[in-house]
User: Which sequence fits this backbone?
């Protein structure tokens, strides 16, 4: 997928889950990390193409970090449910511990964005699953930079936003009843 598609689909999905613009923005930034890190490691286009979707697209490091961070934050009741949670950590005085917890919460959402990137890439090519050097093929719904990619990613984003908001649920409710009435 293109970076635009990764960003919009990840941001809308995370917003639908959290209803937090900040967490959606952080995840959106993280959604291009697996590709961005490859550009830093490989100097030429040829090297990049040879190594694209290998170690940087292996879900294991991201999943281990996210699960560990989530477990730590949840177990210690430090997982921020929304951005107002920052006030809790800096209410008395700023400490190294408070800064660490805030950074860990933000890093959690950043790498959730990277995991979304991998899930989205699975629909347009192979990804490493069992080993970082062996790609596994999934159902290819589209090729990168095609009209079909943009229709699917942007259309899905619109549907997610409509469905995740109360006004969207009400709109779908009325459309369903309107269609039911028309079809009778």
Assistant:
């Amino acid at each position: 997928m293109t970076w635009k598609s990764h960003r919009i689909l990840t941001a809308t999905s995370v917003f639908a889950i959290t209803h937090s613009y900040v967490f959606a923005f952080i995840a959106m930034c993280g959604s291009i990390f697996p590709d961005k890190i490859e550009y830093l490691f490989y100097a030429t286009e040829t090297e990049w193409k040879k190594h694209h979707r290998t170690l940087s697209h292996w879900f294991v490091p991201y999943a281990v970090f996210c699960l560990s961070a989530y477990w730590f934050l949840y177990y210690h009741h430090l997982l921020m449910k929304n951005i107002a949670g920052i006030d809790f950590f800096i209410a008395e005085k700023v400490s190294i511990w408070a800064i660490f917890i805030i950074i860990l919460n933000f890093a959690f959402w950043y790498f959730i964005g990277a995991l979304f990137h991998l899930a989205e890439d699975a629909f347009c090519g192979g990804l490493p699953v069992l080993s970082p050097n062996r790609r596994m093929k999934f159902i290819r719904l589209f090729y990168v930079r095609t009209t079909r990619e943009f229709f699917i990613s942007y259309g899905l984003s619109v549907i997610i936003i409509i469905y995740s908001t109360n006004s969207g649920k009400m709109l779908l409710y009325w459309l369903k009843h309107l269609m039911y009435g028309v079809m009778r």
Observations:
- Residues 96-121 form the longest helix (26 residues).
- The chain has a mean pLDDT of 82.
- The radius of gyration is 19 Å.
- Strands lie at 127-131, 134-136.
